User: Fold Cytochrome c oxidase subunit 2 from Apis cerana.
Amino acid sequence: MSTWFMFMFQESNSYYADNLISFHNMVMMIIIMISTLTVYIIMDLFLNKFSNLFLLKNHNIEIIWTVIPIIILLIICFPSLKILYLIDEIVNPFFSVKSIGHQWYW
Assistant:
């Protein structure tokens, strides 16, 4: 049931919605970790006076910032595809709901 100032999803009635909610929570945790790490690195660069101004190339850093996003995208991709193909199968639904929305022109 939806309540006032509710910041999360409602309780779900189906297995599919549970999967979607858990996937959403996983992706949000990844986004929060990436944002926190980015803010920390930016603040560290601004507050730290020991930065290397003569660094022209570093292959190890380039490999790291290429491989880590690929790994993160794969971590997001596989559960997403699993849920996508799971939702695509329709197994004897007990009922179906048709909802119609109308826009108010004020």
